[in-house]
Specification:
By secondary structure, the protein is of the alpha/beta class. Helices cover 38% and strands 14% of the residues. The protein is built from 12 helices and 11 strands. It is globular. Pfam families: TGT.
Length: 318
């Protein structure tokens, strides 16, 4: 969550699950190790927040340049190569609540041979992560990665082999990149049959409200997506259809696809209503649409902070 200081985070009372990217903290890992600061302290998180640690960049989604021995990632210090041993050293040092096993994640544009290699590499790396996990009394929970691109056979093999391991949950990778909704539904229904019901399922890169609800109906438990970030980056505020009177006067409010409003629009420059009347978030209870419209027009960073606050609240509502 860019731009949020400690006092901003304190306003997010429902901040219970936070994704942390290894690449984002790469330049800070030495300082964390030297000071002994925990993830929660470093990120100003409440003590009961759950941290999910991974190397997946759901915002930039860079082209995979992985090999059979290392995962490539784009950090603040440039491109880095990381092995399962290096990754697990960070996991064991900082002890996040949960972490995603290192995996050779590629998108669906790659061919069958590359998808096959990615699946096999991911299984090997999962075994390495399991063998290197701190055997303390309360080790971080590990999530295995389900991959296979747009090839159902590889998807099923990945799920079966991953679930044979001693894991605490699964991450569904490689979706949300342009596949048809029908194919996505088929994959999620396959996992509903193959993955044990006791294992939580985290879906990457799917964030549209309607698509989230469809995935929940197919058994998905949690999501990690850039959708709220991308929406607010282009000055849209999320206003889901949740029976609030706020959306009754919005153009297209009768259409369930009307889930956002563009606050750069001139029609909001004198609109003194909150983004959503009745919403308990800090942005809605303290500021108006007109004020945020002004902040955007003068390129004030406070607008970004308010967008972060409201999108976190709406994601919790959803």
């Amino acid at each position: 969550m860019p731009h949020l200081t400690k006092d901003n985070c304190e306003k997010l009372s429902d901040l219970k699950l936070v994704g942390v990217n290894y690449a984002d903290l790469f330049s800070s890992l030495a300082a964390l190790e030297k000071t002994g600061t925990t993830f929660a302290e470093f990120l100003h998180l409440p003590n009961d927040s759950q941290v999910v640690f991974s190397v997946t960049d759901i915002i930039a989604n860079p082209i995979a340049r992985n090999t059979a021995t290392h995962r490539s990632l784009e950090s603040t210090n440039g491109r880095k190569k990381i092995t399962p041993r290096e990754y697990m050293a960070a996991v064991n040092t900082y002890k996040p609540s949960s972490f995603v096993a290192l995996a050779d994640e590629v998108d669906g544009t790659f061919g069958a041979k590359r998808q096959q290699n990615a699946m096999e590499n991911s299984i090997v790396w999962l075994d390495e992560c399991l063998s290197l996990r701190d055997p303390s009394s309360s080790p971080s929970r590990i999530f295995g990665v389900l991959c296979g691109g747009d090839i159902p056979r590889l998807r099923e093999t990945s799920a079966v082999e991953t679930c044979k391991r001693s894991i605490d949950g699964v991450v569904i990778s490689g979706l949300g990149g342009g596949e048809t909704l029908e194919f996505r539904h088929q994959v999620l229904e396959l996992y509903a049959k193959v993955v044990p019901t006791a294992l939580p399922r985290l879906l990457l890169n799917v964030g549209n409200p309607l698509e989230v609800l469809a995935a929940v109906a197919s058994g998905v438990d949690a999501f990690m997506s850039s959708y709220p970030y991308i929406v607010s980056k282009f000055a849209y505020a999320l206003v889901f259809w949740i029976g609030s009177p706020s959306t009754s006067n919005e153009p297209g409010s009768s259409d369930k696809s009307a889930t956002k409003i563009n606050l750069r629009d001139k029609k909001y420059d004198r609109d003194m209503r909150p983004l959503l009347p009745g919403c308990p978030c800090f942005a809605c209870t303290h500021h108006s649409r007109a004020y945020i419209n002004h902040l955007l027009n003068v390129h004030e960073m406070l607008a970004n902070i308010l967008f972060v606050l409201i999108r976190q609240t709406y994601r919790s509502i959803l």
